[in-house]
């Protein structure tokens, strides 16, 4: 029972209270770049959840069974993790293209973009090398907890992205001063949205 | 030489990575709470950008098209690791401020974006100009943003332990400027300003 409550807290903390987009500024490029279309946002969110789970699994295994025992983690973790993510994304793309054209059509175009999505690198590194990110409580994740945490981060990313996409669709028809039109106004809207997330800070002591 | 200057200037104004191309935003908004952190972040980005541009454009004839993204990433990760370890060793207080944002330069879209869009198709000499221009454009913007946020958000401006300017003691700083929403809103306004400036410049050029 205790562990289930703990896992729930871990999930909520990662998804809402320490939301990766609006309270950490990670992965903003995709947040601004993709959110002008609802359909695209849905595809991107799903792809991020998918890739992030796989990336965290891979980095956790590599860190705990390869880098840490060899004692080279401190200076090899950046190249190692980013290479894992890049390779993983490439494989997933090839696999999907061959075996699941449906899924490939839905998320194919977002997959290459995810390589440079900082959210994936940040979450995967946090799971493998805790304290790197000072996101939630400093914590040595077991494998299961790492997965729950990643799911929380990815779900929080998707939720914030979809919220923002919905707001931007409304913004297109709103009367906005000439020089603020487009991106500047989107940033101001994002600021207001993140104000709502600031209100959640400190819940459950997370 | 004239071409060199033109490429250099493009990075500063009409192709400014932050306000026009809107890439590499994550670190900008997160780091810009303090002047000194932003300044060193800018230097780190200039270093990584110029070095990776040079190396990639040197080897552009040997890099096969299909695997160019992983190769770019490994080159960039190597330089980021250099910066990471260098700062950790020689500037520990700065490293404590910047923290995770140094490793996250790897996935900073500016660097991969310039490698792909410029260095991969241009000569070494021009790639240096592009790296310097883009890096400087980034640094100027992040420093302006940080100056404003630190001065009005905390009431004084610090650099390497010395107080540069401090506002009269009756000034009550609005806390929102140091929080996440402040960054978004301020950046939106800054972007509107720089768009006005760019329109002005292009109209004059015509």
Q: Any chance you could write out the topology, listing elements then pairs?
A:
The complex is a heterodimer of chains A (206) and B (206).
Chain A: H1 2-17, H2 28-34, H3 38-70, H4 73-99, H5 101-107, H6 111-115, H7 118-128, H8 143-171, H9 183-198
Helix pairs in contact in A: 1-8, 3-4, 3-7, 3-8, 4-5, 4-7, 7-8, 8-9
Chain B: H1 2-12, H2 25-31, H3 35-58, H4 68-90, H5 92-98, H6 109-119, H7 124-154, E1 156-159, E2 162-166, H8 180-205
Antiparallel strand pairs in B: 1-2
Helix pairs in contact in B: 1-7, 3-4, 3-5, 3-6, 3-7, 4-5, 4-6, 6-7
Description of the molecule:
Chain A has helices at 2-17, 28-34, 38-70, 73-99, 101-107, 111-115, 118-128, 143-171, 183-198. By secondary structure, chain A is mainly α. Chain A has one domain. The mean pLDDT of chain A is 79. Chain B is mainly alpha-helical and 206 residues long. Chain B has helices spanning 2-12, 25-31, 35-58, 68-90, 92-98, 109-119, 124-154, 180-205; strands at residues 156-159, 162-166. The model of chain B has no long low-confidence stretch (mean pLDDT 82). At the A-B interface, helix 2, helix 4, helix 7 and helix 9 of A face helix 2, helix 4 and helix 8 of B.
């Amino acid at each position: 029972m205790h562990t289930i409550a703990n896992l729930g807290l871990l999930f909520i903390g990662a998804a809402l209270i320490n939301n990766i987009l609006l309270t950490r500024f990670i992965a903003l490029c995709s947040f601004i770049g993709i959110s002008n279309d609802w359909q695209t946002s849905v595809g991107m969110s799903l792809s991020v959840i998918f890739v992030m789970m796989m990336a965290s699994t891979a980095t956790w295994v590599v860190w705990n069974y390869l880098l840490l025992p060899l004692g080279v983690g401190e200076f090899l973790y950046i190249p190692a993790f980013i290479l894992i993510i890049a390779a993983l994304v490439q494989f997933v793309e090839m696999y999907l293209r061959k075996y699941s054209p449906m899924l490939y059509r839905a998320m194919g175009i977002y997959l290459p973009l995810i390589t440079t999505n900082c959210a994936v690198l940040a979450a995967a590194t946090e799971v493998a090398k805790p304290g790197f990110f000072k996101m939630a409580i400093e914590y040595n994740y077991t494998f299961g907890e790492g997965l729950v945490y990643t799911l929380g981060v990815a779900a929080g990313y998707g939720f914030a992205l979809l919220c923002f996409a919905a707001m931007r669709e409304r913004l297109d028809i709103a009367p906005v001063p000439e020089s603020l039109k487009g991106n500047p106004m989107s940033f101001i809207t994002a600021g207001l949205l993140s104000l709502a997330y600031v209100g959640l800070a400190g819940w459950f002591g997370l | 030489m004239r071409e060199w200057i033109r490429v250099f200037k493009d990075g500063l104004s009409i192709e400014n990575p932050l306000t026009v191309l809107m890439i590499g935003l994550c670190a900008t908004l997160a780091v810009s709470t303090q002047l000194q952190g932003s300044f060193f972040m800018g230097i780190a980005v200039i270093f990584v950008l110029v070095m990776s541009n040079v190396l990639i454009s040197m080897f552009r004839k040997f890099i096969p098209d299909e695997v160019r993204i992983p190769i770019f990433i490994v080159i960039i990760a190597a330089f980021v690791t250099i910066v990471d370890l260098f700062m950790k060793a020689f500037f520990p207080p700065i490293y404590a401020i910047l923290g995770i944002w140094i490793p996250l330069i790897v996935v900073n879209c500016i660097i991969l974006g310039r490698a792909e869009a410029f260095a991969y198709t241009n000569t070494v000499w021009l790639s240096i100009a592009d790296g310097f221009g883009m890096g400087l454009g980034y640094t100027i913007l992040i420093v302006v943003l940080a100056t404003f946020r630190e001065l009005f958000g905390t009431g004084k401006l610090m650099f390497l332990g010395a107080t540069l300017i401090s506002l009269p003691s009756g000034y009550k700083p609005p806390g929102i400027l140091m929080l996440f929403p402040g960054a978004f809103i301020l950046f939106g306004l800054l972007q509107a300003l720089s768009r006005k400036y760019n329109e002005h410049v292009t109209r004059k050029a015509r």
